[in-house]
Amino acid sequence: MSTDLDAALLEVRKAYRLLEDYQRRMFELLAYIREQLRATPYHQEYILPRPGALAALENDANSGMRYLPMLDLSAFWLRHKGQAEFWDKHRAGDLLFAVWIQSDDGYHSDTFSYRRPAEESRSRLIISAVLCDQPSPVELNWFHGVWHSLPRYSSLMEQVVSSEAAPGYRAWTAAIDLADLGSQAAVDTALDAWRSKASAALGHPV
User: Fold this and answer.
1) Are the C-beta atoms of 162 and 133 separated by less than 8 Å?
2) Closest of 163, 97, 99, 155 to residue 131, by C-alpha
């Protein structure tokens, strides 16, 4: 048995167990934040969805990345007025929350590559609030009709954005560094600060 290979495989096994713990804690964190925002689970999106088959993956330069757990996973939640079909039938004051788990901000999903080494990158939650000021006269699905009509939120941090494709909706986004969330008190402080800024920017309680 190769000593070097055995040592490398040991590091892989350790990495799997570390990732399992990280992901479990992230799901717990997301659930806590969702509860604090009084939101309902709605949707999720994977930047790199897992392939449906293994065929030809040996020829895909990004095959290793496509199986990385929780790489750029986004969760979407809704706060609504209790109306039926709330995902399509919106009311003024309804909110969509989008939470992007940016486990490594050195990773660039557009090019499937790393822009900088892990030592120089960060792990963040990028949280957006999308407010319905005036429901569209034509039904718009929150995810496909509203969210995907807005500008890329990652490049418009702490700015109120809107789109002619979804009039009556405005969004605001800010990042929270995961390294700052070492305790529940720290989570509460960071979330309260995010909500305060979002509420002020949108002119509506978030």
Assistant:
1) no
2) 97
